Amino acid sequence: MAHAVDLTLDLPPILTSHPVVPPMMPMAAAEAALAEDSVGAGDLFWSCATDSVSVAFVLEPEVSPERAQEMLFALMVAAGDAIARLSPELALPGNAEPVLANRAGVGSAHIKVSSELDDDGAPMWLIAGLDLALKPKSALEPGETPDQTSLWDEGAADLEGADVIAALSRHFLTWINRWDGEGFKPVHDAWLFRCEGRGKTITLSFGTEDEQVITEGQFLGLDEIGNLLMRTDTGTQVFAVTDHMESIVHSVTEYEPEPASQES
Predict the structure, then answer these.
(1) Fewest beta carbons less than 10 Å away: which of 24, 46, 71, 194?
(2) Cα(34)–Cα(154) distance, rounded to whole angstroms?
(3) Where residue 195 falls among pLDDT bands split at 50, 70, 90?
(4) Cβ 30 vs Cβ 43: under 8 Å
(5) Per-residue pLDDT reduced to its tens digit, 17-43
(6) Residue 198 half-sphere exposure, CB side, CA atoms within 13 Å?
(7) 104-141 pLDDT, tens per residue?
(8) 3-state helix vs strand vs coil in the chain, percent to 5
(9) Distances (CA, A) of 169 to 3, 43, 83, 125, 185
(10) Pairing of strands 16-20, 43-47
(11) CB 168 within 8 A of CB 78
(12) Do the strands 126-133 and 107-113 form a parallel or antiparallel pair, or are they unpaired?
């Protein structure tokens, strides 16, 4: 018998809930609704799936497209805060951002910014999305699939999707308010604090599947609007996060937890 899904979320009043039935994903549902001009800022699309958390926040930024990408980092920081609040055991020293360690298969963050601008040069909308695996999708034991894990595998077996979405929403709004009042620097600092890839070698890919150019260098950090700074053989280069998000997430959120000590 299929489990009933509770469609009621404990969300801040400013957000409007839009449950999405799989296989449709919240990012796609949000974009489709925006194309019909039926939603706007404060609409939250979330998946009814019970083994994962997938959300898409619709925002209407009053900043340039370049600055709009800063919301992606605010969402990732909010996710780390929310999970740490719900399951403190995941906030482990040395694990920069285990929830978003894409190489470990826990989840990923996404952003889509409208190419249409208003009279002030700001995007008409943006969608900031997050996907997290609550429970393992494989019947194999943890460790047998090192590229896949879940919050359950990481020790948060009691987490419910509705609780994660509610906590994430509150933390995200808190970070948006702080960003609005203090600028990108607090978000920048919080994200780098969780990012173990800083100072390490990362790889970015460019071009099409048939014709790819690979650039490798040392990850230095982010600039004042969230672009990635990388030191290469030719000097320091700047890369737009929105253009290379998949490569960046794969590189800078990869981590290898320290092996557990063997106590007799």
Answers:
(1) 24
(2) 36
(3) confident
(4) yes
(5) 999 999 999 999 999 999 999 999 999
(6) 16
(7) 557 788 899 999 999 999 999 999 999 988 888 766 55
(8) 30, 25, 45
(9) 24, 11, 12, 18, 21
(10) parallel
(11) yes
(12) antiparallel
The overall average pLDDT reported for the chain is 80
Cα separation, 210 vs 202, in Å, equals: 21
Amino acid in position 253: T
Q: What is the CA radius of gyration of the chain?
A: 19
Residues of the chain with pLDDT > 70: what percent? Answer: 76
Domains of the chain, first to last:
16-194 (3.30.930.10), 201-252 (2.30.30)
Contacts of 257 (CB under 8 A, 6+ apart): 92, 94, 95, 98
Q: List the beta bridge partners of residue 206.
A: 213
Q: Which residues contact 205 (CB under 8 A, 6 or more apart)?
A: 212, 213, 214, 215, 244, 247
Query: Which of 146, 114, 153 shows the shortest CA–CA distance to 132?
Result: 153
Q: Within 10 Å of residue 135's Cβ, how many Cβ atoms?
A: 15
Contacts of 244 (CB under 8 A, 6+ apart): 204, 205, 206, 228
The enclosing H or E element of 50 equals: none
Residue for token digits 């460019």?
A: 206
What long-range pairs does 149-153 form, CB within 8 A, spacing at least 24?
Answer: 149/104, 149/105, 149/106, 150/105, 150/106, 151/83, 151/87, 151/90, 151/99, 151/106
